Amino acid sequence: MSTLNSVAVFCGGSPGRKAIYMQEAHRLGEILAQNEIKLIYGAGTTGLMGAVADGAFSENGYVIGATIRELYDIEKPENVAERANKFEVWDLMAERKVSMVSQSDAICILPGGFGTMDELFEVLTLRQLNIIKAPIIVVNIDGFYNTLEQFIYEMIGEGFVKPYQLKLLTFVRSVDEVLPEITKQMEAINKGKTL
Fold first, then answer.
1. Per-residue pLDDT tens for 87-128?
2. Residues 166, 153: Cα–Cα separation, whole Å
3. d(Cα 188, Cα 194) in Å, to the nearest integer?
4. Cα–chain center distance at 18
5. Contacts of residue 5, Cβ cutoff 8 Å, sequence gap at least 6
6. Rg of the chain (C-alpha set)
7. What structural domains and CATH numbers belong to the chain?
8. pTM of the prediction?
9. Cα(3)–Cα(106) distance, integer angstroms
C-alpha cells in the first residue's frame, strides 16, 4: 500500500509579479515539513523555488535539492547544498527530472515559466503512458493557470486529448488543498481505481 512520503515541487525561479505566489510557495514548504513529507525541488535559491525550500527549512523539513552542473556554476547554491538533507548535481536536465520524479510519490506544480511548463508536460505524458502513477496537482494561485486549463479543454474539443485524460491532473486553488487532494487520489490508486 502506497503512502505519501515525498512530493516533487516544480515552480519558477522568479518571484512573479504578485506577492501571493511567494507566500503560497513558502506555505507549501511549511505544510510538507509539518506533515513530515520530503520536499524534492530544483535546488533554486530565488523566486518560488527559494520560497518553497525556505518554508520547508523553517519547519525543519527534509529537503532534497536537484540541479544541473551548468546552473550550479551560475547560481552557486552553496547555502542550499549545506542545508539540504540530500543535494544532487546532474549533467543533464533530463537526468535531473528523472531523479526528482523517481523519488516522489506525488507531483505539485506551482506558477512558473518555460522550465515549469516543460516539467509539467513531461510528468503529464509519463502519467498518460502509465509510466508513473503519481498524482499531479496544479496549484492555480490567483488564476495563474486559468488559460492553461482552458487550453486543455480546447485540445479536447479539437480531438487531440481524450476527455477521460482530464483525470491525469487536478487543478486546485490553494496549497492548503494539495495534501488532501493527493491523499484522496492515492487512496483511489491503492484501491485499483486508476485511469
1. 899 999 999 999 999 999 999 999 999 999 999 999 999 999
2. 9
3. 7
4. 19
5. 37, 38, 105
6. 16
7. 6-190 (3.40.50.450)
8. 0.94
9. 10
